[in-house]
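pasting for ref
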Amino acid sequence: MRILVVDDDHDAAQSLAELLPLISPVPLAVTVAFDGQQAVDLACGPSAPPDVVLLDMEMPGLNGFDAAAAIQARLRERTPRLIAVSGNAKYVAIASSTALFHHALDKPVDVERLARVLDGAGPRG
C-alpha cells in the first residue's frame, strides 16, 4: 500500500511516516510532503497515485481542504482515500461532514483508530 503523509510540521510528518509501517499488517511505501502543493504534485504525478493521503488541514498556502479538492479534481476515479488530520476540532468536524474526505482524525492521532482506518483502505487492484 502506498501512503502519502502531508504536514507542514516536519517532525510530525516524519514521526507519522515512521510509525505507519509499525502499525500496518501489510507492507507500506510511505512518502512525505510538507505542504499542500507538494502533496498535489506527488499524488497526481507521473507515478501511480497513493492509496491513502493523510492530510494536515492547517498549512500555509494550499491547506488540506484545497489540496484534497485539487487531488480529487485531477485524479477523479483514481482519487486515493483522503484522510483529514488536524489538532483543531472545528476542522475535524468540517472534514467529517464533507464528501472530500473518507475519514477525519484528531491530532495527536490515535494509533489504534488509524490502524483500523488503514486496514479498511487496502491497495487498489
